Amino acid sequence: MESIISFIVVFGALVFFHELGHLLLAKRAGILCREFAIGFGPKVFSFKKNETVYTIRLLPLGGFVRMAGEDPETIELKRGQVVGLLLDESGQVEKIVLNHKDDYPNIRVVEVEEADLERGMYVTGYTDGERFERFTVKEPAFFVVDRQEIQIAPYHRQFAAKTLGQRTMTILAGPLANFLLSLVVFIIIGLLQGYPVDKPVIGELTPEGAARAAGLKQGDEVIAINGERMETWTEIVNTIRAHPGEPLQFQIERNGKERSVTVTPEAKTVQGETIGLIGVYQPMEKSVLGSIKQGLVETYYWTREIVTGLGQLITGQFQLDMLSGPVGIAVSTGKVAESGIYYLMKWGAILSINLGIVNLLPLPALDGGRLLFFAIEAVRGKPVDRQKEGMVHFIGFALLMLLMLVVTWNDIQKFFL
């Protein structure tokens, strides 16, 4: 249960900030965002603020921002269709009622002759069976279907109406939000826990290590080992690793006084190599500027590592059965959570970078796939046919779901069978 809760909290946060990036840039571009959802499937909780419905759905495996013009189903008024119009005081249409018209006593029943709800914003038709009238549709106006209101989106509020730059930034904002989240998390870890520094100073000691038994203390500055001067923590580590089981003479400074301490590193075999260990962690510091620098370093490091891993997957150096899906990530998240909040935060930051990079891959149904079509549009000077693009994304989504099933089955076999 702890693993499940940890996974839901961590993955939910990553999806939330990813979709928030899309939402903020879409709203900034003037796109009507109908829904901001975390998860898929049936709604568990929802509320509406301004134009957008915010929902939490049952399956916490992703999320989406539903933008006008990107709806899978759209409502169109056809010639001969009978609808009800609710008018404001100036005679403009506020609501177009498609059914349950009897709920509205003052409704104007119209047999539609023509309707343009994108550019012209009007409806023409016959009232009382014979009188022809033209009605202007105001902004905002709503369809009412099964007593549910759906806001009408004029063309200038739709995703496709925006400039190539606005559309590109709206899609790109999701992955960028993941990178920004990782950077912020790494900075917070540095501010709260500290960040490692390459100084010749003894950090935290393990309870049963050789360093504690010999009398070393956290904060001791190492001047020399066996007469060789130490300038960095890296030099200390290399010297200790090179002398397993051999007494080392540490010359240290503590409280302004120099003293000598003899420490014998414990011999331990790691990957076929015998090295020396004394049970000391790298020294840590806390500062705002240092935390920001460390955050940038960590974000760059893990970005490079994940990109390298993806490159190995493409070239065949990385096996498909080594990938993890939701089940594997949930199990790993639970194990990391047992190590403490800072480890969980770092794990979440790494997953956020991974989510951002994967979404930037030029594959159909991913953000990178959308960006690839925008690049083609920039070269051609006109967009790709929307139906053809939609079919490509649909096929890509189906293949991704198939890959997800394969990876999930591998996880189940790996962890539970």
Automatic annotation (TrEMBL):
<keyword id="KW-1133">Transmembrane helix</keyword>
<keyword id="KW-0862">Zinc</keyword>
<keyword id="KW-0645">Protease</keyword>
<feature type="transmembrane region" description="Helical">
    <location>
        <begin position="390"/>
        <end position="409"/>
    </location>
</feature>
<dbReference type="InterPro" id="IPR004387">
    <property type="entry name" value="Pept_M50_Zn"/>
</dbReference>
<keyword id="KW-0812">Transmembrane</keyword>
<dbReference type="InterPro" id="IPR008915">
    <property type="entry name" value="Peptidase_M50"/>
</dbReference>
<protein>
    <recommendedName>
        <fullName>Zinc metalloprotease</fullName>
        <ecNumber>3.4.24.-</ecNumber>
    </recommendedName>
</protein>
<dbReference type="InterPro" id="IPR036034">
    <property type="entry name" value="PDZ_sf"/>
</dbReference>
<keyword id="KW-0479">Metal-binding</keyword>
<dbReference type="InterPro" id="IPR001478">
    <property type="entry name" value="PDZ"/>
</dbReference>
<keyword id="KW-0482">Metalloprotease</keyword>
<dbReference type="Pfam" id="PF17820">
    <property type="entry name" value="PDZ_6"/>
</dbReference>
<keyword id="KW-0378">Hydrolase</keyword>
<feature type="domain" description="PDZ">
    <location>
        <begin position="194"/>
        <end position="241"/>
    </location>
</feature>
<comment type="similarity">
    <text>Belongs to the peptidase M50B family.</text>
</comment>
<dbReference type="Pfam" id="PF02163">
    <property type="entry name" value="Peptidase_M50"/>
</dbReference>
<feature type="transmembrane region" description="Helical">
    <location>
        <begin position="341"/>
        <end position="361"/>
    </location>
</feature>
<dbReference type="InterPro" id="IPR041489">
    <property type="entry name" value="PDZ_6"/>
</dbReference>
<feature type="transmembrane region" description="Helical">
    <location>
        <begin position="171"/>
        <end position="192"/>
    </location>
</feature>
<keyword id="KW-0472">Membrane</keyword>
<dbReference type="GO" id="GO:0008237">
    <property type="term" value="F:metallopeptidase activity"/>
</dbReference>
<feature type="transmembrane region" description="Helical">
    <location>
        <begin position="6"/>
        <end position="25"/>
    </location>
</feature>
